[in-house]
Write a structure and sequence with these properties.
single chain, alpha+beta, Helix Hairpins, two-stranded antiparallel ribbon
């Protein structure tokens, strides 16, 4: 801790700093609780998406073997994942809107009827996986902001506020001692003056 100046100006600066820290601490604590609540919801959503993906994969296991020989092409290609920017407690996050998938033209006479259902299932799986990736990015960004906010809350609560209080206490003691010393010097000077007058 740097040595604090024992002056009235420094006392005022320390009191102002303490006031600022006390003013901003509740806002940081509120942000921290909002982020914690949002993060819990985001993790629950990510878990639900993982379960949905597993259900889709389980449903596909019954017919996926039909694609193994390569005679029926599964012509679904992910072109892009559509997102827009959202904001949670000051954190900019991506929000999933959907996917754009392209299907190749298929010969309806040459392909079995289940090929269209397989393409639908593949597209649904792509969509769930893309949404999971966006959800994972949301969790990462919010968790990172929560970590930073928690560090700031701890800095204010455990370092800055106690440091300012201690500095104010030290300065008050020093100024009090200085004032007492000045009074004592004044009394000594006065008594010396009276002794001098009496001696003359």
């Amino acid at each position: 801790m740097p040595k604090v100046k024992l002056t009235k100006t420094e006392l005022k600066a320390q009191k102002d700093a303490l006031s600022r820290y006390r003013k901003f601490l509740p806002m940081l604590q509120l942000k921290k609780s909002q982020l914690q609540a949002e993060l819990g919801g985001m993790r629950a959503k990510a878990d639900a998406l993982a379960r949905r993906e597993e259900e889709l994969l389980e449903g596909a296991r019954t017919w996926i073997g039909l694609l193994a020989d390569g005679s029926v092409p599964l012509a679904v290609e992910l072109e892009r994942v559509r997102t827009h920017a959202g904001n949670i407690a000051g954190v900019e996050i991506p929000v999933f809107d959907g996917i754009d998938a392209r299907r190749a033209e298929i010969d309806l006479w040459a392909t079995p009827e289940w090929a269209d259902d397989a393409a639908d299932a593949a597209e649904a799986l792509m969509s769930v996986r893309a949404e999971r990736e966006v959800a994972a990015e949301q969790v990462r960004l919010v968790a990172e902001e929560l970590r930073t906010t928690s560090q700031r809350v701890n800095l204010f609560e455990k370092v800055k506020i106690p440091e300012c209080r201690e500095n104010i206490r030290v300065i008050n003691v020093a100024l009090g001692d200085e004032q007492t010393s000045a009074v004592a010097r004044g009394k000594i000077a006065k008594s010396h003056g009276k002794k001098k007058e009496a001696a003359e």
